[in-house]
Write a structure and sequence with these properties.
The chain is α+β, with helices and mostly antiparallel strands and 131 residues long. Helices cover 21% and strands 21% of the residues. The protein is flat and about 80 Å long.
Amino acid sequence: MIRRWAVVAIGALLASGCFRTVVRSGHPPGRTPDRYDERWHSGFAAGLIEASGPHEIAKICPEGWAEVRTETDPLHTLLNLVTWFIYSPQSVSLVCAEKGAPTAPPRQGYGVPPVTAPSGGFPPPAPPADF
């Protein structure tokens, strides 16, 4: 009986994998503040109840934020399973906006530099006009 439960628990852990959620504000990314790269965020009842409380992003990144990542890895999943989802940790990473960035992203978005093709390569030359 114990062997069966061990096989089920190991199978559930291996099948659980990990997942990541990334939210971007549109600001160009700058630095990651100290102690806010993969910081553990605790929750209870499968993450429905926050234990760590909200992060005060305005104090952490006075210039604004660029990206927030949350991740559940196999260790977090193991803790979820061992505690029957009573304790539900995640890793949270915060990336501040680049210093001096505009307060809001431009309406047209940030430009992407044009791609220059080497001569004789891709894209092929345009067909003649009488084609």
